[in-house]
Structure formats: structure tokens, C-alpha cells
Amino acid sequence: MSVNDRQRKAERIRHLLDTEGDSVHENTRVFNEGRYESTADLDDYEALKDEARAIKEDAIERLPELIEQATEAIEANGGTVYVAEDADDANRYVTEVVDGRNVVKSKSMTSEEIEVNGALEADGANVWETDLAEFVLQIAEEAPSHIVAPAIHKSREEIADLFNEVFDPEERLETAEELTRFAREYLGEKILDAEVGMTGANFVTADTGTLALVTSEGNARKCVQATDTHVAVAGVEKIVPRVEDLQPFVELIGRSGTGQDITSYLSLFTPPGDSPTFGDGVGSDDGLTSGDDRALESGDDREFHLVLIDNGRMAMREDDDLRETLYCIRCSACANSCANFQHVGGHAFGGETYSGGIATGWEAGIHGQDSAAEFNDLCTGCSRCVNQCPVKIDIPWINTVVRDRINRGADGEFDFLVEGLTPDEEPGGLDIQKRLFGNFDTLARLGSAFAPLSNRIARTGTARSVMERTLGVDARRELPEFERESLVEWFTARGSRVDPEGARRRVALYPDAYTNYVRTERGKAAVRVLESLDVHVDVPAAGESGRAPFSQGMVATARANAEAVYEALSPAVAAGRDVVVIEPSDLAMFRREYDRLLPEDEYAALREGSYEVMEYVYGLLENGADTDALADGNGERVAYHGHCQQRTLDLEPYTLAVLEDCGFDVATSDVECCGMAGSFGYKSEYYELSVDVGESLAEQFTTDDTADRTVVASGTSCLEQLDALLTRRPAHPVRLLDGR
């Protein structure tokens, strides 16, 4: 990425932070809180997610068969099904059906994807969006910024100003009630005048041809009921085998997206419907319910057309890495749970149509990698979205794979030689910034070898200016300081202080690159804490876990790192010893990402035998180790922030339990992300977004209750961000247990 490209991206993000960030942040926060509360009420939440995923896996596997089955069911009822190859094909068919008539639409991201409104209007049709948010964007001439709440970036005041300017009502509109009433009456007239109703479909059942539409306003029903021609557009992936298969999705989609136990309207259409349509005349005050002077026309002549759209989906089905994208039910939980999305919104974190974490898969498969490349790096791989997805899509992996493909370029050729790799494994066109951060282990090793000179040089204004211009490392971000003696070197010289024969347990402490070369004090503390609990510790020279290159989309390098780490740890694993990990993001590699990078047996062995250090201490204490061997908190007031991947792995409770057992008074943050995200916070194009996210955490740790507390955090990124934003230097919790 050139300097100009970085500046352009930084300016774009800065603009959206200033103009849309507050509204997006507030609304996604409400959705998030609602999701947590609503899903907590489900006794079988995880089972429902497993069931939903199994249905989607089966449906995508049998997709050609189900398309045929749905077609037969609908045509047997008198409807028509058209399978469109791409957007142009779909628009040609829809335009022929509409034939210049007036159209009213309910919300449909698939119709946004094919840009059907423009095609219809070019053919002389009048098209009106009847979803309130889509109506707002239509008159504002803006694109959606969210899959479920397309106008989430607009405040009530902005919408009021827009309506007053465009429609010039007799009395100025201000309140939400006034705005809603105006839109209802205005769109009610458009619905009465329309001849064609267009909808999307959240699901289509193959056995009966039933369409399931989930809406908040009931406008889809009105668009269908008030017109004699119903055109539904849906991606082929929306098909599920049976009507009974809708049950888990009905339970999950509202809860996952907006935190509602069930959305306001769940409409099931088995078209063509036989209910009558509204004829000419005057209806009731809402413009839709017939009165005595209102004639009803028979529904016998109602037309129905289902346009099933491929537009790259069948190719995605054959792609082992993009295939999971097709399981998506468009609930937006991945966007709502993403810290970067919460602060900057879908106009930055999105492509031509789709936004949020899953958007990378959709955009790459439908619009191409160039569209995905515009926002792909906004996914930091924090994995917060993984537990929120109702069909358990591995969204970070999809983002990583697409990032890898973007790095490789269109021709997929490589000529960049990285230490330990062959020339055909890394992309020659790889951005120099990604090369730097993806090879952090090499950088840290060199920095440590030449410390403290390397640190002094890196702090100079000249060096910082050059790094910002050439590498995109923001000069405002403080750089890590390398230790002259690495953790491995320290331990090799010191040796273990516990006799292996009489030890309670024997472990290998994994020396991640940051602990080994930068924050060695937490590694030393971990050694001493484990030894105080009668654990024999070894610290093998294991190297980088692969997290750094993985985050840059350098999958080949990450795989090579994973193989080297397993080789270094395999003697301990084979001997039945546990692997203790300090950095949560590295443990997440062992427990999650190595599934993609190592043979199944090696991954399983490391996954089952690895533990986060505070999790391991908790286990020792629960199995008889003496708490008195650890430092006495003696009521010390502590403010604790858990790492994103630590929370995804559900490890945070172990840290809290250990600290409280040792006598510390712990207050925890309810801010879910520090915003640093490894290398992300160093990049000049993302620095301001990183700080904006982090300020929410910093504010929480400067309230009356937390201002004087010792700040602790489990993750490297969290420690760096808090160190930059607070006047108190934070520490890893294992250092509190060490007492030194």
C-alpha cells in the first residue's frame, strides 16, 4: 500500500469516526446488549446453533437438488422460478416481469447486491423502498451501512433534517413518532398505487416452496398483499430442505441480530397466495385496510416469480474456504460484536454490498477480491464474532484466507524468500508493512541482539519519520523496547528450581515472541509462580506461533511457524507434559487456528495439552496446591481487562477466580475490546480508529472506582494500549501472583 493510499484510508476513517461513529456505536451497543440478554434465556442456545449449522451444511451440500425441488413445488402451485446466473441476468428477468409498472419493495440485501432498483428505474418503473431505514437511504441517495439496520449511521436529528428538506411538510418533523407517521402515510399511498410487490426471502423451503420473511415493520406483507404481482429475489443459498427446518433459525435470527426474542413479523408465504388484492378505492387511515367503500379483487390472477440468484455462489460452494460464507443467515451479529465496526460502521467496514466480518467472504465471492481488499484489514482476527455467529461460521479464517489471496495477487505467483521458506510460498507483491509485522519474530530477535542500541535508534525522530513513510508505522504509537537478554536465555542460564522427580507437574512454558524478547518480566514471573506451586518448568526455544503472519494473511509463513513450534514442543507433548501459554492469542492459535495449519493428530495433541497460565494456576489450586505459596493480595484494588481471544476461549473466569482467591479486590471492565489488536494499532491508516476504540476502555479505568486501582490485562495488545492511554503502567496478572 502506498503512502497516498494509507493517507486516503486514514482520512476516510477519520471522516466516518466524526460523522457516523457515534450513531453506529450507540446502536450496535444496544443490539449487543440485547443479544446477550436474549440468548441467555435459551436453555439450548449452543444446541440450536449446532442444529442450524447442520441444516445449512446439508442444504449447501445438496443445493442443486434442493433448487430443483423448490422449483417443482412452486411451479406446481402456479408460480414461476427463474435461476439467474448473475446480476445482469436477474435484472433482465425482473425488468421484463415488471414492465415499467410501479413497484414497492421490502428490505432485501440481495436486491441491493444486484442493484435492481437502478435497472427498473432505467426501464421506466417507479420503485419505492417501504422499509423505513431503506426509505431514508433512498431519499438520501446513500448505500446501506449495516445488513439488518441499513441506516444505523444516521441519528434521529439527521433523519428529521432530511425529511424536512426533501418533503417540506407544513409542520416541521422532529420526533421519532412524527417521522414514523409521516413515512407510514407517504409510503401507504405508494403501496396503494403499486402494481408489483418485491421482497427478498430469509429462507426458502424446498419441500413446499414456502418463503420465510423476517421483518420489523410488516411492510413485506403489505407489499405482497396490496399488489397482484409478487417478485421475490433470493440467493440460492437461502434454500433449506423442509418447513420444519425453519424452527432453529426463527429462534436465532432475531436474537442474534437485534437482541429480540422474536422479530415483530415472521411471514410465511407459500405462493402464489390466494388471498384477494386491494382494488381501486379509498382505504382506512393507514391506506391498507379496506373499508366499506373498498372493492377487493380476487387473488386468482396473482402472479408469483421467485428469482434465485447464483452470482458467484455456486463457485463459492466449490471453494473449501469460502463455502462457509453460504451458511450465513444475514443476522449482522458479526458486525455488532466487532469493535472496529462499532466505531466506524459499514461505510468503512464493507464493500459494494455487504458489511461487517462476514462481508469479506460475500464480497470476494460475489464482487471479487478488489472489493474485499478495501476493508479486509479492518478484521483483526480477534475472534469475538466466532461465538456470536448463530451458525458458527469461522469468520476470522475466511478473512485470513481472502487476505492471503489478496496478498498473492491475481496471478498467485511468488518470489519473496522468507527465512526458512521456499520462494514459492510467499507473495512477491506482499505489502512491505505486512512483511514487517508478519515476521515480528525475526524483527524481535534482531532488536534484542542489538539492544539497547536498537531501542535508542528506533526512538529518534528521524527513524520514526522514515518508518511512517516507508512502513506505515504511525509515529504517534510508542514502539516496544527489546530486552538484551531473552526469556529463553535467562532460563537457560538460571535453570529450573524444582526437582522433576518430586514435582507436582512438569510443564513446558511456551515463550511467545513478545514475552521472549520484549515483556520478559511476565515470563520470569510465570516461571517463578509455577515453581512456587511445585511445578517443574522448562522453557524451550519454540519460536513464533504463527499469530503474527496469520494476522497479515501470510498463511504459508504461519503454517511453517506452526510446524516449527510443534516440533519444538513435541518432546514435552509426547512425554505427557502440559504446555503453558502466557499470551492468549497464541493459545488461541494452538486451540483453534492450528486446526487449519497442522495435521489432525498434531493439532489435537497440542489443543488438548495446552493451557493459559492463569487457567493452569487455577487448576493447580483446585487440585491441592497451596494458595499461600502465591503473593497475598491483602485487599489490593485491581482493575482487570480480559483479552478478546481469552474471552472467546472462555478463560477469563479463571484469572478472576485466582486473583480473588489470593486476596485481590478485582473490578473488571465491561468494555470488550482494547482496540490495539496486535499490529493493527501500529498502522498509520488505522491508528486513530484503534485509539478511538481504546478510549472507551481507558475511560472505564479512570472512573472514581478504578482511578487508583492497579491495572492488569492478560494480552500483549491490551497492555500496550492501556500503557499508551493511562498514566499507570499495566501488568500481566501473573506478576501480581509473583509478588516481585
Report on the structure:
By secondary structure, the chain is an alpha/beta fold. The strands form five sheets. The chain has a six-stranded parallel beta sheet with strand order 1-12-7-4-2-3, with helices on both faces. Strands 8-5-6-9 form a four-stranded mixed beta sheet, with helices on both faces. Helix 28 runs antiparallel to helix 29. It is elongated and about 85 Å long.
Please provide a brief summary of the model.
The protein is α/β, with parallel strands linked by helices and 740 residues long. The chain is built from 35 helices and 19 strands.
Category by helix and strand content: alpha/beta
Quote the beta fraction.
Answer: 5-15%
Question: Approximately how much helix is present in the residues?
Answer: 40-55%
Q: Count of DSSP E strands?
A: 19
Give the overall average pLDDT. Answer: 92
- Spatial ordering of strands, largest sheet: 1-12-7-4-2-3
How far do the termini sit from each other? 45 Å
Q: What coarse outline follows from CA principal-axis ratios? A: elongated
Q: What gyration radius follows from the Cα positions, in whole Å?
A: 28 Å
**Main β-sheet: number of strands, strand sense, barrel status?**
6 strands, parallel
Number of helices: 35
Give start-end ranges of low-pLDDT stretches: 280-298, 410-424
This entry's quaternary arrangement is: single chain
